[in-house]
Amino acid sequence: MTAGEGETFDIELEENLLAKNRELADANRGRLDERGIKAFDVMGAIGSGKTSLIGALIEHLTNRRVGVLAGDLTTTIDADRLAKRGAVSIVQINTGKECHLDANVVAKGLDEVLQHDVDTIFIENVGNLICPAEFPLGSHARVVVVSVTEGPYMMRKHPYIFREARVAVVNKVDLAQVVNADLDQLRQDALAANPDLEVVGTDCLGGEGIPQVAAALGL
Description:
The chain is 39% helix and 19% strand. It has 8 helices and 7 strands. It has a 7-stranded parallel β-sheet with strand order 3-2-4-1-5-6-7, with helices on both faces.
């Protein structure tokens, strides 16, 4: 394949953008480490259960002071839901047409959430299994949430995001039999993408698996 006119420039621009994001992500991590705060970003498709997972973790972690950065294109729906779950501080980040958070907008969100007495921060990314993988945010670990209702091939079709994560959450296991999902196969698919993953099955609404997710994150 031959590069077309302007293609080399486009690649250089993308590389510069990703390099700048990594630089800003390192700065975010530095700010968190200076304060002894642990941060985790949660990625996954729309409807996978990211908000439900964060809400359940907030209620489970009764000994932690949790702040949240809630990413969404245009609404405050998820932030409003999490406000009822006991978070110390919630900052809404609306990205408009952008399909992911980046380290720059997270830095601005940290300016606000760090004004509060928090020791743990969850960052809910925009619902997407592609773009967030390329943009680290400075968190201490990344979590990917998939649900059994998304079909049997989600992990095989989107391996890159699992390679960036420490924990894969397979949510809605209570519906596995209804949708004929093979939980063992989903686990094998996740580990095929990243053998170092911790794979945890959850029913975030019912509470199943939440202590195991917290333990996998060292909380």
